Request: fold
Amino acid sequence: MKNVRKAGDAPIPCQLEADKNYAWCSCGFSSDQPFCNGNHKKEDGTDPVIFKVEEAKEAYLCTCKQTKNPPYCDGSHKN
Ligand code: FES
Reply:
């Protein structure tokens, strides 16, 4: 079982560019939240989620790592 930890108590609003690949940190060990900085390798954490958006937009990306809709916040941090 890979490690996951909570990296924050609220999502981070991010300006996403169209057609750019992003790596959302799913393990919570990155110090560059909400994005992966490679720390999952040394912490035996879960792998990042690679995603992109078709149109530039602002999105609230999950930091609690409990979301059921990664990389987006689904309100799970309030549970
Ligand atoms: S550092 Fe968390 S997924 Fe890479």
Remarks:
- The mean pLDDT is 98.
- Residues 36 and 69 are 17 Å apart (CA to CA).
